[in-house]
């Protein structure tokens, strides 16, 4: 921690901004006077948060739209007729469900056969509300992992308040109870996964030197049932400067494959294969390859760089016995691979062509891969759901920006997919249309974006417009059904634009790598190009254009409005990174240096400072009134980013709004009511700021 000194002027300005100061208020650092706001649960920091929350809620509650939006959002979240997704495990489908009665949720299952007949008979396995009451804990369900093929034992992850850190507990289906003396790991950012009924991988905090600077485990062990975890055998370790390591097992009909990923940084991994004697051998993939799975003794990976004659972006297979490589699928210049799944009979490949999905399936025939179109719906977003190498059946979903989700089921025994459910519309889209447009970025690159607008929209620059972006970590922003935004924005006359900027994965690894580290400005230039394209074409105007993004997207919009305040009239920055000179010292931030760069490196550090929203703030500039939202319990992106940004903006006299959910983790909400309240905050702000009439 840096030395701290008293800066009385900063304190006085904080008092003016309605932040209570007590005798316990930390002293200020002369280089960063708001570093005390990084103390997540500190009394003074939380007093500041509560005061800012009160200012925001008191203002927005006076707007009749707030209560309306909160009610409309909650109705969507709690809808009894929303699709019931599930994972096929043996003869059952497993589902987690929350509604107005089950606030924290219930984990349940039904026989698959009756579920497919649209008459599920749900058997509640674990009631999280009842568990939280019985144990006096603020439990948030984080997921389960079952042991194939019987699926009688599960590892259940529970978080206090929605954090990434979880408690892992073994659960027995037959007794509907946690296993006494079973596999249990206390709260931390651990990784626990099955090897077999009596062994699990555990990557956890085993004391000094066992956690990386990113806050993830650097040591992984095989833990035998009945053994003291502290005496279990370590099988791999990483330097603390690395990101971390993880272990998992792929269960198939023939052979199970236990793997360990040793991650040097976010994009570089060494993959180890565990043998029966608990020894390991390295899988012969290039370290920057994106491992997708093991199936039929073949390792599958997407190449992030050219390798042995295979171009970047290709899906390749590597035979574990012979080490022979094969090209499975090579995208063209307009396509990229989005996802790779496996069922017992086929490889399932989801690809994008100009940000529109289709699903292919493949089999290996005489050392050649035969790929064919599965003929699922086209034009929007397709997701394979619940595919499992242990059976031939899987679910899929289809939707686009104004078309509600369809849930289908594909059985290997039939030629055609089966429609299971169709979600009712959550907003009126009768007068809406979706168009894909392309803007030209500063270097001439064509940047796609989706636009949802009224069919009779006038191109007079008067349309309140919301532009959403992310642009990082190979994440693609696709044409999916945005029910909340549709109800609270599009249905009420707002135009919505979805940016497909570089840094994402829309056109494969090259699209992502074009905006890495000291090329991150390419993402920002792409975002500005889309904004200017909409302004120049008469769709909107700067005073009517708002921007929104979360996490890395929160950084994007933070940079956008500090660098180009002339372009925007509203800003919603959700759980954002904003102080790019300290992000690597806060929570999981060090793990993202492979994406953003190293602040301590002279070249990368200078670049980061020049693009850091917290450092770009200028008291002489005029900014639109911005909204920052975050969560106290977010143990991934530190809430100090948003806190410090708002404090500095207020000190400089800029208009700003702030809301921090005291619970919720990186999703910024621990239950459906909290999600609805946050939606009401953000969209009431947008309506007011951009002048969208009801």
Account of the protein in words:
- The protein is an alpha+beta fold and 694 residues long.
- It has a domain at 8-74 and 426-690: Alpha/Beta hydrolase fold, catalytic domain (Rossmann fold, 3-Layer(aba) Sandwich), CATH 3.40.50.1820.
- It contains 14 helices and 37 strands.
- The protein has an 8-stranded mixed sheet, sandwiched between helices. Strands 5, 6, 7, 8 and 9 form a 5-stranded antiparallel sheet that branches. Strands 1-2-3-4 form a 4-stranded antiparallel sheet.
- The protein starts with 7 loop residues before the first helix and ends with a helix.
Descriptive keywords:
37 strands, five-stranded antiparallel beta sheet, 694 residues, alpha+beta, eight-stranded mixed beta sheet, disordered N terminus, Rossmann fold
CATH superfamily membership of the domain at 8-74 and 426-690: Alpha/Beta hydrolase fold, catalytic domain
Q: Which residues form runs of ≥5 with pLDDT under 50?
A: 1-28
- Spatial order of strands in the largest sheet: 30-31-33-32-34-35-36-37
Query: Helicity level, as a percent range?
Result: 10-25%
Q: Report the CATH topology name of the domain at 8-74 and 426-690.
A: Rossmann fold
Task: Give the strand content.
Answer: 25-35%
CATH architecture of the domain at 8-74 and 426-690: 3-Layer(aba) Sandwich
Question: Whole-number average pLDDT?
Answer: 91
- What's the count of strands? 37
Number of helices: 14
Structural class: alpha+beta
Can you identify the CATH class of the domain at 8-74 and 426-690? Alpha Beta
Radius of gyration: 25 Å
Largest sheet: 8 strands, mixed
Form type: globular
